[in-house]
Sequence to fold (498 residues):
Amino acid sequence: MSYILCGQCGQKNSVTASQCSHCDTNLLKASENPGDIYFPGTYLQDGRYLIQAVLASGKFGVVYQAKDTQKKDISAADISAADSRGKNQAIALREVTPPISHPEIFAKIVQYLNAAISAQNPYYHPQLAQFWQVFTEDNRIFLAGDLLEGKSAKFLLKQCQYYAERCFREAEIIQLWQNVLPVLAELHDRGTVHGYITPDNIICPGRDRPLILADCGGIQELALQLTSTKNIQAIIDGSWGNIPKGKPGYAPEEQLRSGILAPHSDLYALAVTSIVLMTGKPPHKLINLFTMSWNWHREINLTPVVTDCLNKMLASEPVERFQTANELLEILASNSDILLPIIESNASISDQFDLGDRELNPIIEKPDKSTEVSLAEAAEKSAAALQQIPSNNISTPDVINGWNWAAAILPGIWCLSNGVGLGLLAWAGFLIDFGTGLSTWILFGIVLGFTGNELSWKSGKWESVEAFKNHQKGWNNFLALLLLIVMPIVIIIGLLAL
Fold:
């Protein structure tokens, strides 16, 4: 049951009343149309939630600021840690508007949201923003959850690019990890996985305040998807998944494909979020879509400790990643003598929040001179970066040496993506005639079959042995597919010629 509070005498009235039944004061009221907005002073769910303000309104529903009058008090220690988040703090009520008005769809949406919240097992933590309840009122669906105050890491990145002409620094990412990993460790210890870590869901509430992880369990994303008209049939026939599988680009493949969630899934998403914030590029521009190997190393130069951590967090095989947040925290702690000086000598995330407090200006403000990199520093960084590139003088790892079938059969094509210009000469014979061209192709195929791996590695194209091997694996898969298509055609032509 919902009702509206009289601003004059404080007494409760029906939402359809035009005047207070106690003092005859005229009341602001919502009409009986379920699509209308509730006015401040309206109580929902038998008086539990008091509407205080309308925060947003759009095609997916309305978001209200409200007071939870029945929210349990928490201990003084928890209130202190949560920066006074207690019983009387404002919360958020998000309306979920079904794509069409239909009783079955209405019931299914409530069922899916309830299942997702139950699976998430929400609990109080000062650095987690969660939805803890779904309820219906006046044939409308609402999600009750924490009210977020602050700016997302994605927003801060844009502000930083706009005003300071840079992205997040390595020191700021280390700080981000130190903020977020203990929260994830506690979440994982409870048998729960966040499942939806992205730059949008890391919130900076203000200067020198701990970061907050939003949309734990992807409940908000699920609500948005359930309001889309393209998902109506899936909602009705029950083929809809109860829990979101993660955001493409940020969630690992096994999570997107099979819905498999584990602590290492969160660490993978945290790593993707980190390199996006440090490069300013979306995930699809930081990964080779042909081999599915990450190539962020070309964009930024980090300390070996952080590089190794990111590589392990982003491993394609789940067993090769950090299995818990505590494992990564231990690595950071054991290398504090290396990481602390980096943090102390650079700006903090709070400085980016200060940038975010300013309004966008059409004229880009230049960064302060103190933040500019000197020519000497630039030269030093360039030299350090060059040291990471394999040169023609270095030896080829034993695991790379060996016969390469793709280079042997397709020398003039394989060479294009492997940095081996020599392979282009395989086409030269075709300028004379087909017979000469075929002989030249076979000759260079034999040469590159034996030496292609070594020549490609020494081209300086590869950040790691794993990246090289993944690329060659992709070529071998392509070759196998090509042969499966071509060989039957050759056999059929041969039989017809008999």
About this structure: The first strand starts at residue 3 and ends at 5.
